[in-house]
Amino acid sequence: MGFNQLDPLLHSQLRLAVMSLLISVEAADFVYIKEQTESTAGNLSVQLDKLSTAGYIEITKQFEGKKPKTTCKVTQKGVDAFDTYVKEIQQYLKP
Fold first, then answer.
1. The model's pTM
2. Residue 19: partners with Cβ closer than 8 Å, 6 or more residues away
3. Cβ atoms of residues 74 and 57 within 8 Å
4. pLDDT at position 3 over 70
5. What fold is seen in the domain 13-93?
6. Residue 2 clears pLDDT 60, i.e. is over it
7. Which of 25, 49, 52, 81 is most buried (most C-beta within 10 Å)?
8. Reduced to 3 states, what is the DSSP secondary structure of residue 64?
9. Does residue 59 contact residue 46 with C-beta atoms inside 8 Å?
10. Band (16; pLDDT cuts 50, 70, 90)
């Protein structure tokens, strides 16, 4: 039995945590994602940018009053990649 190579973009702990979180909600703002993943703002920004560049998430920046607000949501491409990643992990875990 051969194993597929795991998606290197999702095989990062923080990016996988972000995707898992976004899969379960319609959208989430940067502060919420940062709190839930217990990451630093700088590291999270870099990882969100990588997921966005790959087309796995969509990032919207806007203002609420005078405060900037960044919202992220998973795209269909991201959902498909996540589903594939989960199936491939399950293949590795089968006895």
1. 0.89
2. 10, 51, 56, 57, 74, 78, 82
3. yes
4. no
5. Arc Repressor Mutant, subunit A (1.10.10)
6. no
7. 81
8. strand
9. no
10. very high
